[in-house]
Amino acid sequence: MTQGPSTPAIVMRGVSVGIAGAAGALCDLNLRLEPGSLLAFCAPRPERETFLALLSRRIAPERGSVCLFGRDLWLLGPDEARRIVTRIRPWDNADAGLSPWQIVSRACLPEGRLWGTVKAPRDRDRIAEALHRMDLTRQASQNAASLTGEERQRVMIAQALVHRPGILLCDLSSGGFPGSAGDAGRGMRLPGALRDEGVTLVVTLAGPESARGVADLILAPGQEPSSGETYEIPLSLTG
User: Fold this and answer.
1) Which residues contact 116 (CB under 8 A, 6 or more apart)?
2) How confident is the prediction along the chain (239 residues), in pLDDT tens digits per residue?
3) Under 8 Å CB-to-CB from 178, ≥6 apart: which residues?
4) How close are the terminal C-alpha atoms of the chain, in Å?
5) How far is C-alpha 119 from the geometric centre of its chain's CA atoms?
């Protein structure tokens, strides 16, 4: 997707969800993130899920607005939104009997549908492109049970890349995302490498330790966003 050079990837203005102090609540959230950046959001699980849900169009802000590449997220249709922002899903061991092609092809199925054959040439080309992008062409028809943990991670990233989104979301605190359990820094390396291609990456973590030196920006409730030791963007995560 092509955007103007000065168009930020994500802008949140006065975004609030829930009652201040309650689990999962975010209050008066203001944020501007440039394309190609890696943002680490560090908070307890309820707040992490709220933050990802706000960016993936699963919940609407009670106050304020969320804009992606200059467009209000809630003025986009669901299909259009998922072509702009996609969440990297955690690995599910129930998929071990499938091939990487079958797993990645789910991105082209109707929302909520897990099974089906993708026949449209354009969609098949995009599936092949995403697998190639993650260096999985050779393993495309292989049984996923034989893949390494890192290869499984690449399969899930490939699934998220099918529609060529400008923004990827990922909860690295989940043990279902290979490489993240106990070593979120290692889990960040593969998706983080996509920044070189201009993809904006938002990851959520339980704590900021593993994000230091990897993320461009680290956000934590009650703190200013930090890049290294400097504070750059005004932010309020508490009421």
Assistant:
1) 105, 109
2) 545 557 999 999 999 998 877 888 898 888 899 999 889 898 899 999 999 999 999 999 999 999 999 999 999 988 889 889 999 988 888 888 899 999 999 988 766 566 677 888 999 999 999 999 999 999 999 999 999 988 998 999 999 999 999 999 988 876 545 444 444 455 556 565 677 677 899 999 888 777 777 788 888 765 555 444 333 333 333 22
3) 91, 149, 150, 152, 153, 156, 187
4) 36
5) 27
Gyration radius of the chain over CA positions: 18
Scanning the structure block, which residue is given the tokens 């992490």?
48
CATH 3.40.50.300 fits 10-231, yes or no: yes
Q: Which residues contact 229 (CB under 8 A, 6 or more apart)?
A: none
CA-CA distance, 195 to 37, in Å (whole number)? 7
- The C-alpha atoms of residue 212 and residue 208 are separated, in whole angstroms, by 7
The DSSP annotation for 34-52 comes to: -TT-EEEEE--HHHHHHHH
Distance of alpha carbon 23 from alpha carbon 35, whole angstroms: 30
Beta carbons of 36 and 195 less than 8 angstroms apart: yes
DSSP-assigned letter for residue 73: G
Strand-by-strand arrangement of the 71-72 sheet: 26-33, 10-17, 63-68, 71-72
Dihedral sign, CA of 4, 7, 10, 15?
A: negative
In the chain, domain spans: 10-231
To the nearest 10 degrees (0 to 180), the angle between helices 121-133 and 149-161 is: 140
